[in-house]
Design a protein that fits this description.
Strand 7 (188-201) and strand 8 form a beta hairpin. By secondary structure, the protein is α/β, with parallel strands linked by helices. It has 3 domains: 1-110, no CATH class; 111-152; 161-408, no CATH class. 51% of the residues lie in helices and 17% in strands. The strands form 3 sheets. It has a 5-stranded mixed sheet with strand order 8-7-6-9-10, sandwiched between helices. It has a 3-stranded mixed sheet with strand order 3-2-5. Strands 1-4 form a two-stranded antiparallel ribbon.
């Protein structure tokens, strides 16, 4: 296909004085668009010209339909664009039947890109007031805080649909964890826990299955969330990776009795060494690695006993903590190295929480649960590349899952 020839500047702008004015503006460092921008007048002319073309088509169609109508001058209208405000002159007709599509009669902006910019700024943790100020600084556009809120509210139907969307029938791994925020309620700021469900399906596709909000984190609330997953189509979960919340395992088993529950080793280590002196901290952590890094559960028990003897009071205290949750901590020992690496910690969902914290670190609280939900949804959807990364060694993992779970797993493969 022959490449289309690009028009010259002289062809685009025949007026030599206007071309010179634009070139001088560019060299002087003037902004390209926005108030007094180099290309603002040109963009206004393009919009007016496009509307004029629409009017010509409309009048021709009216004539063909036998409708008496004629032009009725031009109006004046200021529209907002991502390049700044434009003063345009839309044509009018006597009958008032002309309905332009580029800028509709009651439309006050050419803002598809600008709406996206507002949502991106909101997703990065900027408040409505911050966005109001940034739009003036970056685009020279004044949007009221209520108008910005209305734009962010446009995603609410999308959020509701996302929260209720059907899910896959089976997930290989589901990571469950909570993150805490403060929101305003009845004139007071209160704590809220956001429950994050992060899954990997049977074809290695990562997804955030849901964000749920409650007053505090509890095993009973997690049970209700798991029931909701079941209602939305999740019939089976092979592995559930959790922290040390009391009663968590029982809540999972009530909804998904066949699921293998793996207690996060990283969380357990953090809790185990809270009272260890800085002098011994690194060495104790290194010795704990010999336990969860053992070849099998039998060797892990031997490593735990050796740890108990070596570290005296600290060893005894930590060994008891591990023995209390031994079954959940050692569940991953029945699998190969690649599966172990995937399930021994809740780090994947904590990585999602780090993305959220980075976006929200400057905000002390939110004006409502709805505002917080919008913030979280936009943050995770605008940062998908950060948490939807590839699962390494998936073929080896898949072969082991087929071997260990048989038809229970393979029936879900496409």
């Amino acid at each position: 296909m022959k490449k289309k020839k690009r028009p010259t500047l002289e062809e685009l702008i025949p007026d030599a004085d206007y071309r010179k004015e634009i070139q001088e503006g560019l060299y002087s460092g003037k902004r390209w668009l926005g108030p007094d921008g180099v290309f603002t007048d040109l963009l206004q002319s393009f919009v007016d010209s496009a509307l004029e073309g629409e009017m010509e088509v409309h009048m021709e169609q009216q004539h063909q339909d036998g409708i008496k109508n004629r032009r009725n001058g031009r109006g004046k209208k200021t529209i907002k664009t991502e390049g700044g405000p434009l003063q345009i002159s839309p044509p009018r007709d006597r009958n008032g039947s002309f309905e332009p599509t580029l800028v509709e009669k009651r439309q006050r902006s050419l803002q598809t890109g600008l709406d996206e910019a507002i949502l991106s700024l909101y997703a990065k943790g900027n408040s409505v007031e911050d966005i109001h100020r940034l739009l003036i600084e970056i685009y020279g556009v004044r949007y009221s805080t209520s108008a910005i809120s209305q734009i962010t509210d446009k995603v609410w139907p999308e959020i509701l649909q996302w929260q209720q969307r059907p899910l896959k029938g089976c997930y290989s791994i589901v990571y469950l964890d909570g993150i805490h925020f403060r929101v305003k309620q009845d004139g007071m700021f209160v704590d809220r826990c956001v429950y994050t469900v992060y899954g990997i399906d049977c074809e290695a596709q990562r997804d955030i299955l849901g964000l749920y909000m409650d007053k505090s984190e509890s095993a009973s609330s997690w049970g209700q969330i798991l029931e909701d997953l079941k209602r939305r189509g999740v019939r089976d979960i092979l592995f559930a990776c959790i922290d040390g919340l009391q009663g968590f395992k029982s809540s999972i088993e009530q909804v998904y009795p066949k699921t293998i529950v793996q207690r996060c080793i990283v969380h357990k280590i953090r809790n185990s060494v809270r009272f260890v002196s800085d002098k011994h901290l690194k060495k104790i952590c290194a010795d704990l690695r010999t336990i969860y890094g053992a070849a099998n559960e039998s060797q892990a028990k031997q490593a735990l006993e050796a740890f108990r003897i070596k570290w005296g009071k600290d060893g005894e205290r930590i060994a008891k903590l591990w023995e209390k949750d031994w079954e959940e901590l050692m569940a991953f020992m029945a699998f190969g190295a690649h599966v172990r690496r995937m399930i021994y910690t809740t780090n994947p969902v904590e990585a999602v929480h780090r993305i959220i914290r980075k976006a929200t670190k400057t905000k002390g609280a939110w004006i409502s649960e709805k505002a917080l939900t919008k913030q979280l949804y936009l943050t995770i959807t605008k940062n998908e590349k950060s948490w939807k990364r590839k699962v390494f060694h998936w073929k080896a993992i898949q072969l082991e899952l087929i071997d260990k779970f048989g038809e229970r797993y393979s029936q879900w493969l496409e």
